[in-house]
Amino acid sequence: MRTSQPRTIYLSEYRVPDYLVDHVDLRFELFEEGARVHSKLAVRRNPEATGGPVPLELNGDSLTLESVHLDGRQLTTDEYQDKGELLIVPAVPDTFELQVVTWIEPQNNTRLEGLYKSSGMFCTQCEAEGFRCITFFPDRPDVMARYRTRIEADRSMYPVLLSNGNDVDRGVLEGGRHFVTWEDPFPKPSYLFALVAGDLVEQKDAFTTVSGRNIDLRIYVEPRNADKTDHAMDSLKRAMRWDEEVYGREYDLDIFMIVAVDDFNMGAMENKGLNIFNSSCVLARPESETDAAFQRIESIVAHEYFHNWSGNRVTCRDWFQLSLKEGFTVFRDSQFSADMGSETVNRIENVAMLRTAQFAEDAGPMAHPVRPASYMEISNFYTLTIYEKGAEVVGMIHTLLGPDLFRKGSDLYFERHDGQAVTTDDFVKAMEDASGRDLGQFRLWYEQAGTPVLTVEDDYDEAGEVYRLTIRQSIPATPGQSNKKPQHIPFALGLLDGEGNDLPIRLAPSEADAPATRVLELTEESHTFEFPDIPERPVPSLLRHFSAPVRVNYPWTRDQLRFLMSHDSDGFNRWDAGQRLAVDVIRELSGHAETKVDPRLIDASRVLLTDESADQALVAKMLQLPGEAYLIELTDQADVQTIHHARERVLKSLATALRDELMACYRRQQTASHYQITPEDVASRSLRNMTLAWLLHIGDEEALELALEQFRNASNMTDQSGALRALANSPFEAERRQALDDFYQQWQVDPQVVEQWFAIQASSPVSGDLEAVRRLLEHPAFDWKNPNKIRSVVGAFAGQNLPHFHSQDGSGYQFLAETIRRLDDSNPQIAARLTAPLTRWRKFAHVYSEGMHKALESVRDKENLSRDVYEIVHKSLA
Ligand code: PHE
Ligand code: ZN
């Protein structure tokens, strides 16, 4: 067990920094046995800090201090205190220069925070608090400085030396070494610092900005990945253009660089002018990566690029404001993806993730507001709530203001706060000031955790032709918060007549220009709305486009849901009606072996499968049954095995009843002869893979032949891995083993494909029982030091292979606990992330929750538990 409890940090304790750093001069000497970091800081007392002179305190982590100089004079050891996590210099003047030399060991850094090595190259990760692993520094985002960075290293091993800004000097040194100096003219917080040194190849391109400036674009990769950079480069140029057109934001430096690294804790990082990416989030070619990867890459490249304004030019005052940059930037990247592809499909994908995973987080022991009030370890707060719910909150402001006022607001925000470190409140204030709208109550979205529940009741007055809706909101209690105040909720409503047409929605009789979709604003616990001139009882289409991150309860009948599925003018709600119908049918079957699948669900699926005139991208989404994780999220005291079996039965009934339609749909799918990621082609490949998967699931012999043929002759990875996945989940044991072996033989040289191969098996209820998953960990391609490999086996098993992970003997939980304990010393961030599935134990029936609780206790009892895992385990056992 950990001997001391980590300290909790509170937002209410925020104080401005006592000292500011105007300039940072860094010199890195990189060697195989370590690195020496020389730092020269131009420091001055912060004029806004109150009180008398105070000691200078600099953060540090795992550093060996070699020397300290103040204004050129070396300090003796009694003139400063090296407390490991803090370097204290008690007596300093108001303005001074501090020089610190530290020694670090990047080659032994398995936490992947600070400076570390990934397949032979040096790279950094400084957000949130990694810079203090490089040198002593006031490592907080409201200390913004200009950086000059000189990197020295062996010239043949590390020909490429990169940092933020522009390269201003380079030269040859003795002993086969060389150096490059970089200067970043924009003041930035330390978390945006980056350095890379390696033997890399570059892909070069250029972009001309709206004002005619020429920007050098470069993507650096290991030589073996040289053929995987085109898609990221194209995505980058599209993102740069889009940000100019939609937000009026132009790029500011003369060069923009992206580097791909294999070992990375997260997806990617927006370091100023030098974005560093997890290989899996930037490298792709059609033969080896799927459509999903192509789309993910486009949106992440855009996300990191957009941070240059929403995050870097305007940054966060403190880490409680993390959603200031993340929520806004996710909102921006989803607008971008919607503009590049299918808007409705993008919305569906975002909401499906939000409702499955963020709602679960918001209902669990780690629930926290979009602007948290406290934390122990900030790395634990890079959450779906900060990112996805934060984006929804910005999206609601967009809905309330409309696109023009929202743009005025974002212009004002960037203009007012350029070069500053600010708060989510500053963001809302800019939106208020630009629009004249009062967002006072709206701010509760940042302060209160928990997903609001809307209960909707209606009645229809036939004589008066008035339709009445009563909407009640309640917000469940979350850790540390009970008795919540009602929130300001934009609620988009449509009303359908008997033919399925939208009725004009009036708030007063004979109101002119009444809209077909009306955004109602809920501010009280209960609202009753009256809509006049409604000639017949309508079918309500509630929360169109998912206009707020809330749960909606309304007693739709199954016939009404079918009706909405085919008639709602809101594509999102057509999909949602289908999901609700499917959930209802699956639930009806849960634990009732004799109940038959409602023929209305089968008919609805048949219509979707055969209607060639419908938007195939939407059809592909609508045919997917709600996932097990979502079904669990909707259930109290969830019984995983029962839910799994009920869903399986529905899937099998559908596949059996619609066998011929599935086959015809499969054969109908045609894509362009060369690979492209248009919404049409993506939908087509998705329909092929889905129909194949359903048919293989019921052991169809003809489908087996088709799958084998598709597997062998595929010209792109979406088709090949789609067939493999279908085979891996089929009852055809010999073929499935053969295909898995062949795939590995074909792709073993490409680690990104090997990760897909791991994930397909670890997430498969058929191919991935616990024993098989343990064997994957012994596989020569598995690597405990590589987060992607861990995620593709352990993460995929615990997150997607629910029947095996939730085995009632508790073996899946024990396995996960073992893994967490093993990783806690080497990479606490990854260990903490893997803990999430266990924290939800209260959600499950006793047979499960007991085992999950035990597993959590066994993690809690580990020696020297990291702060990361400590926080999550203790909060979830509390
Ligand atoms: N700031 C990164 C992003 O969202 C995420 C990240 C956080 C990466 C912490 C690494 C470490 O774009
Ligand atoms: Zn981000």
TrEMBL record:
Domain Peptidase M1 membrane alanine aminopeptidase: 232-442
InterPro entries: Aminopeptidase_N-like_N, Aminopeptidase_N-like_N_sf, PepN_Ig-like_sf, Peptidase_M1, Peptidase_M1_dom, Peptidase_M1_pepN, Peptidase_M1_pepN_C, Peptidase_M1_pepN_C_sf
Substrates-to-products reaction catalysed: Release of an N-terminal amino acid, Xaa-|-Yaa- from a peptide, amide or arylamide. Xaa is preferably Ala, but may be most amino acids including Pro (slow action). When a terminal hydrophobic residue is followed by a prolyl residue, the two may be released as an intact Xaa-Pro dipeptide
The keyword Zinc is annotated on this UniProt entry: yes
Cofactor(s) for this UniProt protein: Zn(2+)
Annotated Peptidase M1 alanyl aminopeptidase C-terminal domain residues: 559-878
Domain (Aminopeptidase N-like N-terminal): residue spans on this chain: 58-192
A GO MF label: alanyl aminopeptidase activity
Enzyme class: hydrolase
Domain Peptidase M1 alanyl aminopeptidase Ig-like fold: residue ranges: 450-554
Keywords recorded for this protein, A-Z: Aminopeptidase, Hydrolase, Metal-binding, Metalloprotease, Protease, Zinc
Enzyme Commission (EC) number: 3.4.11.2
Recorded family membership: Belongs to the peptidase M1 family.
Name of protein: Aminopeptidase N
Species this chain originates from: Marinobacter daqiaonensis
